[in-house]
TrEMBL record:
<dbReference type="InterPro" id="IPR035647">
    <property type="entry name" value="EFG_III/V"/>
</dbReference>
<feature type="domain" description="Impact N-terminal">
    <location>
        <begin position="19"/>
        <end position="123"/>
    </location>
</feature>
<dbReference type="InterPro" id="IPR023582">
    <property type="entry name" value="Impact"/>
</dbReference>
<protein>
    <submittedName>
        <fullName>Protein co-occurring with transport system</fullName>
    </submittedName>
</protein>
<feature type="domain" description="UPF0029">
    <location>
        <begin position="141"/>
        <end position="194"/>
    </location>
</feature>
<dbReference type="InterPro" id="IPR015269">
    <property type="entry name" value="UPF0029_Impact_C"/>
</dbReference>
<comment type="similarity">
    <text>Belongs to the IMPACT family.</text>
</comment>
<dbReference type="InterPro" id="IPR020569">
    <property type="entry name" value="UPF0029_Impact_CS"/>
</dbReference>
<dbReference type="GO" id="GO:0006446">
    <property type="term" value="P:regulation of translational initiation"/>
</dbReference>
<dbReference type="Pfam" id="PF01205">
    <property type="entry name" value="Impact_N"/>
</dbReference>
<dbReference type="GO" id="GO:0005737">
    <property type="term" value="C:cytoplasm"/>
</dbReference>
<dbReference type="InterPro" id="IPR015796">
    <property type="entry name" value="Impact_YigZ-like"/>
</dbReference>
<dbReference type="InterPro" id="IPR020568">
    <property type="entry name" value="Ribosomal_Su5_D2-typ_SF"/>
</dbReference>
<dbReference type="Pfam" id="PF09186">
    <property type="entry name" value="DUF1949"/>
</dbReference>
<dbReference type="InterPro" id="IPR001498">
    <property type="entry name" value="Impact_N"/>
</dbReference>
<dbReference type="InterPro" id="IPR036956">
    <property type="entry name" value="Impact_N_sf"/>
</dbReference>
Amino acid sequence: MKNSFLTIKQVDSNELVIKKSKFIAHVDRVTTEAEAQQFITKIKDQNKKATHNCFAYVVGATDSIQRESDNGEPSGTAGVPILDAIKNMNLHNTAVVVTRYFGGIKLGAGGLIRAYSNSASDVMEKSGISQMTLKTGITVSVSYKLNEQLQYFLKQNGLQVYKTNYGTDVQVETAVISDSVSKFENQVTNLLAGDVQFKIGQESYFESPYHPNKKE
């Protein structure tokens, strides 16, 4: 499995008008090809009177599934530019549909390529980017008096808090790179003088904000 990959932050849409043609782009995060197809069908159903509903998607952390469609536009002028836009932004598990309502003025092959590429790029930039990192989830249980110390430690070490439950004690859900689990347990145990309990979860992808100046 890939240690980390980028994907869109949220479902979004954007509209461009080019020489009276309206290009409406929609983007969604998908984890299977079935989800991608469902998303495409939904957008097509919402735009049944559109001239074209062109799309592309990549699925899998290593892009094992890639599909694109010109949906009636000249070959290579719509689906491929959308797919290239996704790949140029290094995004994964991402589907984009660009709907065109023809405005009466032909754009030519070059104009169509630019229109579909820009539409796809704009909607993905508008959505924002998240980084998915393979980590092991850990629930840390501490007393109320030690919670502030734990929270400070997590913040100082750049560890995200995904959920906090308050009961007889405080249960904080975080995640660390899998080969750092033992190191994390030792650090927190020493910090809190052993007054802490850990519940180790499964390894999975955890979402965090993407910082371009950091490596994936």
